[in-house]
Amino acid sequence: MKIFSGSAHPELAESIASELGLGVTNVDVKAFPDGETFVRIHENIRGQNVFIVQPTCPPTNHNLMELFIMVDAARRASAAHITAVIPFFGYARQDRKDQPRVPITAKLVANLLVAAGVNRVLTMDLHAAQIQGFFDIPVDHLYAAPVLIRHLKERGLNDNLVVVSPDVGGVKMARAYSDALGAELAIVAKHRVSATEVEAINVIGDVAGKDVLLVDDMTETAGTLTAAAKILKASGAGKIFAGVSHAVLNDLAQTRLNESEIEELICTDSTPMAKGEGVTTLSVAPLLASAIERVNNGESVTSLFQI
Fold first, then answer.
1. 167 is in an annotated binding site
2. pTM of the full structure
3. CATH fold of the domain at 145-283
4. Residues 266, 268, 271, 275: is their CA dihedral positive or negative?
5. What is the pLDDT of residues 259-295, one digit of tens each?
6. Which residues are catalytic?
7. How many angstroms separate the Cα of 56 from the Cα of each of 101, 165, 212, 246, 263?
8. Cα torsion angle, 90, 93, 99, 103, sign
9. What are the residue ranges of CATH 3.40.50.2020 in the chain?
10. CATH number of the 2-142 domain
């Protein structure tokens, strides 16, 4: 078994390799002055199972292209089996044709990964779970929930708690958290004004006098979370926490979080942007390492979903 790392998140790849008692394979990944990517593998990988760790977070197109080139290099070096380990799957929000004459880019990315030579995909908390069906190869879809819920229980944050979905689309995920934490469930109805602006309209459920955990699969500008937090505070909520699987935080998100009613954002290290003031980052390296080990040994990964 060999662990490769692209340039997107080498710290996570090293943590995963360390969990497995391995080192990251010696691979040169560099850019030419014109922006082209060059990859060279310095070790013999003939007949080996290769796992390439590369979240496709910003710069998304660059990281995707780098992943394609690394897969091609591994395939031409006679790797036995190539698994793309994509903790954060970029373009997952473009999973359907919801306007005239627009692409389904998540499907295009799936096609390109298979065409490049990927035999299996290992990913986590896809924005839309049905993206698994875009692939004609096996997809192992992991969940960060066990990692976040274990942390919340250890800190005792599940007392007097209401789990809140910041939009109707996230109710299923919020329900899973509320069941695991033994907490009640509430929903914030929202209206998206633009790609970065969100208006929270109403709260469905009782949050008065209770602490709140906002749950979502990802945040980028923190617009949905901070708008929801504002209306929850106005509805009498106590402390407000947010738990997300993927924090692709930019400057706007950090500013909004600092000025919001959210006391703490709890997220995973699926992307290198998951850090900042008031942000607690939990590592998913042990989870991904366990999944890689099980895939390599031909074992089930289902038990990793248990909390």
1. yes
2. 0.93
3. Rossmann fold (3.40.50)
4. positive
5. 999 999 999 999 999 999 999 999 999 999 999 999 9
6. 190
7. 25, 25, 31, 12, 28
8. positive
9. 2-142, 145-283
10. 3.40.50.2020
